[in-house]
Design goal:
AAA+_ATPase; binds adenosine-5'-triphosphate; 12 helices; ATP hydrolysis activity; alpha/beta; P-loop_NTPase; Alpha-Beta Plaits; ATP binding; ATP-binding; Rossmann fold
């Protein structure tokens, strides 16, 4: 069980002055201001949950994760993970958690992968018998045998991610922090990693805190989504609830015959909350179906322009978050 209560992190930042003289002043006689990166975050994560921790760039995700993993000390607030405090109980706490940062590796570049695991076994003091059992399980879930004898530097990005996840789980931690586990991978490889994450969560009841910008990760993996913006909670619930709260976004794509017709489409005059995107002759119309009727939008478009093709799609979380990231939705 993870309990976070009124967590805050302030950073001191150098105040930037205007123009060149301001920059010089900031360089030689800096004045500081306080920047609140994380503001009053509270949540509880029960054992075995896959907790999707999401937000736009700069929202405060990494800062929060760094506090939860014990790397950063909070300015104020309370964190308890399985009865331990990440900062005060640091030495014993690291044995309870596994951490994977998608962009960095904890593996030794020049060593064959299996040697890295042997080194980690010693670091985490995993008994031989447990190590053998664990490697069998991880091999099974992540198919490590394909490349376990190869030096890490020769692994593909997807293989390296599987290898990194295995490394973080070698000591059988109760909690796994996964930061962008599918970033930069092909669709097939992403699916493979997602299936492995699901299996680890189901078979071992490992609690997983997942940060991702990948909306398929969110939809396929997370039983709960916690979304922050500017350091503050803006949503806590399921993917379905997120859709409910932030609108039922639909999308209709029209292929128009003549580009000049575009100016005849003035959705804002008859409808509310309609967004138009144009790429050549393809016009994408996104709207909140709770405020507008799809058939009326369709009718309006067909009445005004000549169309050669139409496709209708119910929007997914991607559209919702995209809208949110563009600040088109307001927190209520
Ligand atoms: N050491 C630091 N000193 C000053 N400001 C910082 C520091 N670390 C982070 N920040 C600021 O705190 C805010 C939150 O940053 P953070 O890295 O937590 O965001 P994030 O949600 O993880 O973003 P991303 O998705 O881009 O990784 C940003 O405005 C960042 O500039």
């Amino acid at each position: 069980m993870i309990t976070v209560s009124h967590l805050e992190k302030d950073f001191k930042k150098v105040k930037k002055g205007d123009g060149l003289s301001g920059s010089f002043k900031a360089l030689f006689k800096p004045e500081y201001e306080t920047f609140e990166a994380v503001k009053d975050l509270s949540f509880e994560i029960p054992e075995g949950e896959i907790f999707g921790f999401i937000g736009a760039n700069g929202a405060g995700k990494s800062t929060t994760i760094k506090m939860l993993t014990g790397i950063l000390t909070p300015t104020s607030g309370f964190i308890e993970i399985n009865g331990k405090n990440p900062q005060k109980d640091r030495q014993s706490y690291v044995k309870d958690i596994g951490v994977v940062f998608g962009q960095r590796t904890q593996l030794w570049w020049d060593l064959p992968l299996e040697d890295t695991y042997k080194v980690l076994k010693e670091i985490y003091e995993v008994p031989e018998e447990d190590f053998v059992k664990r490697m069998n399980f991880l091999n099974d879930v992540l198919d490590l045998n394909e490349f376990i004898k190869d030096p890490v530097r020769t692994l593909s990005l997807g293989q390296r991610m599987r290898a990194d996840i295995a490394a973080s789980l070698l000591h059988n931690p109760k909690v796994l922090f996964l930061d962008e586990p599918t970033i930069g991978l092909d669709v097939d490889v992403k699916d493979r990693i997602r299936n492995a994450i699901k299996k680890i969560n189901q078979e071992e009841k490992t609690t997983i805190i997942l940060t991702t910008h990948d909306l398929n990760d969110i939809e396929q993996l997370c039983s709960r989504i916690f979304m922050i913006d500017k350091g503050k909670e803006i949503f806590d619930g399921s993917a379905e609830e997120l859709k409910e709260k932030f609108g039922n976004i639909h999308e209709i794509t029209f292929k128009i015959n003549q580009l000049e017709d575009l100016e005849k489409l003035r959705y804002e005059e008859d409808f509310s909350d309609v967004l138009l995107e144009q790429e050549d002759k393809n016009i994408k119309v996104r709207f909140d179906a709770s405020k507008n009727s799809a058939s009326e939008i369709l009718q309006y478009t067909l009445n005004n322009v000549s169309v050669s093709d139409v496709s209708i799609k119910e929007a997914d979380i991607e559209d919702i978050i995209r809208r949110f990231y563009r600040k088109e939705l307001k927190d209520d």
